[in-house]
Amino acid sequence: MDLSFKMVIDLLPIYVTIQDQDLRYIFANQTFRNDFGDVFGQHCYAVVKGSQERCQQCPVQKTLTDKKVHTGEGTIRLPGGNLQQVVLYTTPILDVMGNVTAVIELATNIQIIKEMYKELIFLGQSIALLSHDIKNILEGLQGGVYVVDEGLADNDMKLAGKGWQVIKKNIAEITRVTQNILYSSKNRQPRLQKSSPVKLAREAVDLFQAKAGSLGIQLISSLNPELPGVAVDAVSISRLLNNLIWNALEACSKDLQKRRHTVIVRADFYDTRHFMFEVEDDADGMEPRILDNLFNQFFSTKGAAGTGLGLVVVDRIVHSHGGKIEILTKTRKGSLFRTIFRLSTTIDMPVQDLESMDALNLQKGDA
Amino acid sequence: MNESDKKSIKIALIDDNEDYLFTMGTFLTRNGFITVTANNGSKGLELIQSERPDLILLDVMMESSYAGFELWKTLQADPALKEIPVIGVSAMQSELGVRPERYSDQDYFHPSAFLDKPVDHELLLKTIAAVLKAAEEHKNRPRWKKTLEKLTETSR
């Protein structure tokens, strides 16, 4: 059995390369060649970054300069375009005069660790936020119960009624939070049934009139009565609309630049074969950083007020219906969330219809 | 604290949750306190300036995560308002890790007491009584103590 060093190095499940002073590859092990092909003589930044220029933070260049071992973390681009997180180690090869002639670089894939790390951060944040939400709801329920008890004890039905409203509002809140947790943690197949988009939208708007009123936000609906009944999972679509409207109201209440805000909910035809729901606010819009993270579980800009599950649930519902979501936003102007579904949504969907839906490209971030 | 004392005690409730203002307001009123409310930090400051309450029940996270902290800092900068005792309220106390007793820094939030939501009614009444008693003692501290405090403050 041939156990030469070269063979061992070739088979190591990490990238081992040697680069000269000009950052050209003069050696690459088999693992590296399997992913990047024959790279002899090519610049490292061109191969793993697709760049024409040297990288700014480069442990190889540091080793070339100071002859020391360096470590670093970086992102490399595989020929297919996929990005991979790696941890790098570099060590110099010295000539008899002690000058660096080349640098050995080891790169280990840490993509899985990075992803787990990200998930752990999300999980930690989510538990804190969920706990905050739930404690606020408990406060509401406890306070409501107290008021009802006092009202009943004094035979003051008006007071009891007010307390009951608080209890009802908080039951709706705990239902929403719990359903979002449940919905985001499993892949639920939609239960399609004939439903009226106009009715679903009207119910969602009615549900939030009290909240909008208490925040001083005008919540109006523009629903096309010509929209026919469609086959959708009514429970899911209601949840989708509730989340979008709740988000819009929260965005308006956080925007202190304007004194009056309006949220508009629309249900209308998108084209001859599709219909859409739109929820539009005139809050302060979204920055690119927020847009990029919009559908990440537990990403929330609402600080204490959001778990970051709402849009994950929206995204999941849209996709489970074979629909599309479009987001139009302008900073300091507002945001519009448009969800598009087939008019002909039936349980036995013709294949070409599904494909034509895919042609409607997702326009995340279109300003 | 007896019933007749409570009658004249005014508590400012500052919280962005309208339901909480209503339910907690009802609880405090029915327990003999006078309550005044505000639903954000800036309205809270106006309310405190105009009403001069005996005690403030302050939510630390309102329109922004730090609205309550900022209001508290503003109060501390005002000699006329800094003596009003504050009970901090949050649903985030354990999550935030706010441990007021561990910080002596004047800039940092250190209210007279800190309660977590949902607020236990019995504990709240006990806390109010204790905080008011301490504030009363502080107010009636001998003149030499007040002078000493002033001297230490100016030499800082």
Question: Number of helical segments of chain A?
Answer: 11
Largest sheet of chain A: 5 strands, antiparallel
Low-pLDDT regions of chain A: 346-367
Q: What Rg of chain A, in angstroms, do the CA atoms define?
A: 28 Å
Number of domains of chain B: 1
Number of strands of chain A: 12
H-E order of chain A: HEEHHHEEEHHEHEEHEEHHEEH
CATH topology of chain B: Rossmann fold
Shape descriptor of chain A reads elongated
Q: What is the fourth-level CATH superfamily of the largest domain in chain A?
A: Histidine kinase-like ATPase, C-terminal domain
Overall pLDDT metric of chain A: 83
Specify the helix fraction band of chain B. 40-55%
Instruction: Measure the end-to-end span of chain A.
Output: 63 Å
Report what the structure shows.
The complex is a heterodimer of chains A (367) and B (156). Chain A is built from eleven helices and twelve strands. With 367 residues, chain A is α+β, with helices and mostly antiparallel strands. Chain A has three domains: 105 residues, 2-Layer Sandwich (Beta-Lactamase); 67 residues; 166 residues, 2-Layer Sandwich (Heat Shock Protein 90). Chain A has a five-stranded antiparallel sheet with strand order 2-1-5-4-3, with helices on both faces. In chain B, 49% of the residues lie in helices and 15% in strands. Chain B contains seven helices and five strands, in the order H-E-H-E-H-E-H-E-H-E-H-H. In chain B, helix 3 packs parallel to helix 4. With 156 residues, chain B is an alpha/beta fold. The longest helix of chain B has 19 residues. At the A-B interface, helix 5 and helix 6 of A face helix 2 of B.
